[in-house]
Amino acid sequence: MRKSVFLGLAAAVMFGTSASADTLETVIKNDHVKCGVSTGLAGFSAADEKGDWQGIDVDVCRAVAAATLGDASKVKYTPLTAKERFTALQSGEIDILSRNTTWTLTRDASLGLNFAGVNYYDGQGFMVSDKLGVKSALELDGAAVCIQAGTTTELNLADYFKANNMEYKAVTYDTSDQTIKGFEAGRCDMLTSDQSQLYSLRIKLAKPDEAVVLPEVISKEPLGPVVRQGDDKWFNIVKWSLFAMVNAEEMGVTKANAKEMKDSKDPAIQRLMGGQGEKLGLSDDWSYNIVSQVGNYGESFEANVGSGSPLKIGRGLNALWSKGGLQYAPPIR
């Protein structure tokens, strides 16, 4: 078991996951949602030159703020390293963790946490300098590998190299920024992380075109928001805030047309645009506020990591189920 897991378990025992805690009540009292994000990962959670946080993970927190407080801007962001993130959530320092975090059995069942859905389906990959002339990770026996500590990436890397009878030297760092700097400085032959993160890190290089993402994808990495166990009301709110964005894309409801869609004759759109709030302890315009202020899932994806972003990642597995992808949300009814 990794050191970070021991720390998480210790924090769970120390702080507990109070079933009596009412996170919604705390959020309303504070008048903001406390959101744990990365220390800076383009497309997912990163502060721009004005200090404003943006990204597909950030939009989940903005959606929760829109649903609970009627204002997507009412979010306080806490940058966290991979090793810090679970303890921060367990201790109550944050209300929600939305930080490119992989849903696994250990994290779901032994840390006192609940994953509230998947906002990005990913998989671990490898990036090398094109000067190496390497076309496959199977050519990297004995390589030095830059890797971020406290992540599932460490175990996946060990499993992959062991399964293929290869050896490697791990060069570990606490943050993703440190890993890309180590890679650029030549301290390792290869950098491994979720493929989405590789594309985000590559654009930070002085010469991005000289780095190549290899074709191998060696793991399943369903990334999504996380909350504490013991507060089902808050769990439902976070879960359905994400589902509202996915449902909105499926129904063709966008940030631009949300207001006119309130007059739709389609019963499903009517429910999305107003209603069901009482069941979540929210006002009936909770989901309308999400779509009108944050947008639907597709809008968030395209602006942050897709065609409208520097990353230009294809939808792939993150396309709607009706378009060959895995994004699927239960109906709002």
From TrEMBL:
Region forming the signal peptide: 1-21
InterPro entries: Bact_solute-bind_prot3, Solute-binding_3/MltF_N
Domain Solute-binding protein family 3/N-terminal: 32-261
GO terms of biological process kind: amino acid transport
Pfam families per record: SBP_bac_3
Alphabetized UniProt keyword annotations: Signal, Transport
Protein origin, superkingdom: Bacteria
CDD domains noted in UniProt: PBP2_BztA (cd13692)
Similarity remark: Belongs to the bacterial solute-binding protein 3 family.
Protein name: Amino acid ABC transporter substrate-binding protein
Naturally occurring in which organism (per UniProt): Leucothrix pacifica
